[in-house]
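We emphasize that the prediction below concerns an isolated chain of 127 residues; any contacts that depend on oligomerization or on bound cofactors are therefore not represented. The input was used exactly as deposited, without trimming of termini.
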Amino acid sequence: QVQLVESGGGLVQLGGCLTSPCAAPERPFETYPVGWSRQPLGKGRDYVAVVSRRVDTMFYADSVKGRFTISRDNAKNMVILQMNSLKPEDTAVYHCAARQTPSIDAYYLDDYEYDYWGKGTQVTVSA
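Result of the prediction step, given as a token string:
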């Protein structure tokens, strides 16, 4: 079992920035594709940024393109979600998830495709 740990959430004003690392303390994280998703209160979950094992294969939801960046820091065994130009509609609980796969280029956009999850971190953006 792989336990993921998210951090870096918080309360920011419109236009602010947050950096949210997702750590896998007991496994080499570079061997897993990783996705960041978010779920606003009372709404469904959407995947906003996903990275394959190959670091240059990524997906971004249209709602965050140009504002969010997903990256790997293999030295720290983390995947980082950098969130810039935040808007009130970005308010949600953000989760990271990972899965085991031999594919280098595959990435995943559905909950059922992931094996491991973190508990989430709350991001709140005030107007």
